[in-house]
Amino acid sequence: MTWPFLVFLLIWLFCLAGTFIPAVPATLLIFGGALLTAWLSGFELWCDLAFFITLGVLTLLISLIDNVASAWGARRYGGSKQAIWGALIGGVVGIFIPFGLIVGPLLGALLAELLIVRKPLLLAVRAAWGTLLGVLGGVAAKFTLHVLMGLYVLWRLWPTASL
């Protein structure tokens, strides 16, 4: 195995664990690791351009998953527009607290439903529950896409790893 292969493998494994920690920008680190390995292995513009365009599009899509999934979950379970905004704001605030990935959107949607929309507790909890399901589904999707993204890079590096 070559240095670029091992470097990316270590970055990727760290990022897989980092998928569950909001403060770790795992998607961007995987993309950065792919750029680093391309540079270490001799970047060739025309060979690597399509590869990096594909990875860049994946990176953008994965970056949207958390927010879109929590908002979708809130809406699916009867949450108002305010609950969706509460979930989005709670997700951003949640970056700075332990277990914030789960607690932030959940509390944001719940508080928005209770304090702004003034829904009854049971309906507000239902919208918050939908937010939680959306967040967990988003994390599962993000982890799966991180696995596929990493395997794609490792597969691309494999022919050079055996040299």
Q: What is the element layout, followed by pairings?
A:
Layout: H1 3-18, H2 26-40, H3 45-76, H4 81-93, H5 100-117, H6 121-161
Keywords: Membrane, Transmembrane, Transmembrane helix
Pfam families: DUF456
Protein name: DUF456 family protein
Nutshell version of this structure?
The protein has 163 residues and is mostly helical.
In words, what does this structure look like?
There is one protein chain. This protein is mostly helical and 163 residues long. It has one domain (3-161). It is built from six helices and no strands. It has helices at residues 3-18, 26-40, 45-76, 81-93, 100-117, 121-161. Helix 1 packs antiparallel against helix 2 and helix 3 (45-76) packs antiparallel against helix 6. It is elongated, with a radius of gyration of 19 Å. The relative contact order is 0.17. The mean pLDDT is 87.
Portion in helices: over 70%
Largest sheet: none
**Tally of separate helices:** 6
Strand content: under 5%
Name the helix and strand elements from N-terminus to C-terminus, one letter apiece.
HHHHHH
Structural class: mainly alpha
- Number of domains as seen in the coordinates: 1
Molecular shape: elongated
Radius of gyration: 19 Å
Total DSSP E strands: 0
Intertermini distance: 8 Å
Unreliable stretches covering 5 or more consecutive residues: none
- The average pLDDT value, as a whole number, equals 87
Question: Characteristics of this structure?
Answer:
163 residues; mainly alpha
